[in-house]
Design brief:
By secondary structure, the protein is of the alpha/beta class. The chain has a domain of 71 residues. Helix content is 36%, strand content 19%. It is built from three helices and four strands. The strands form two sheets. The protein has a two-stranded parallel ribbon with strand order 1-2. It has a two-stranded parallel sheet with strand order 3-4. Helix 3 links the parallel strand 3 and strand 4. Helix 2 runs parallel beside helix 3. The chain is globular, with a radius of gyration of 14 Å.
């Protein structure tokens, strides 16, 4: 297996990577508050068998994303929708593909 950790903080991403065992892995930066960053991240992937969308910003002060969307909605929903859509053609080539989107227990 090869795991790509999509992270916003490289130091914390490397720490998480160190906890993985077996297979290979890489850490790649992505800013889910910026759809241009999401697109660049997706463009750098050749094949995807499993996509796990997981994020959780909550109770932010009113802030806008790079594209002018309300930040919590942009990060928790729009970025996942965009990333999944951008990767659909690479997901379609897998044999046991799946997309998992994780939400907060509060929802």
């Amino acid at each position: 297996m090869h795991v790509v950790l999509a992270v916003r903080d490289e130091r914390r991403g490397r720490a998480a990577q160190a906890e993985l065992s077996g297979g290979s892995s890489e850490v790649r930066l992505v800013d889910l508050a910026d759809l241009d960053s999401v697109r660049a991240f997706a463009d750098g992937l050749d094949r995807v068998d499993v996509l796990i969308n997981n994020t959780g910003v909550m109770a932010l002060p009113r802030t806008l994303s790079e594209q002018g969307q309300e930040m919590q909605s942009a990060v928790n929903h729009l970025a996942h929708f965009a990333l999944t859509g951008l990767l659909l053609d690479r997901l379609a080539t897998g044999t046991d593909l799946r997309v998992v989107t994780v939400s907060s227990v509060l929802h």
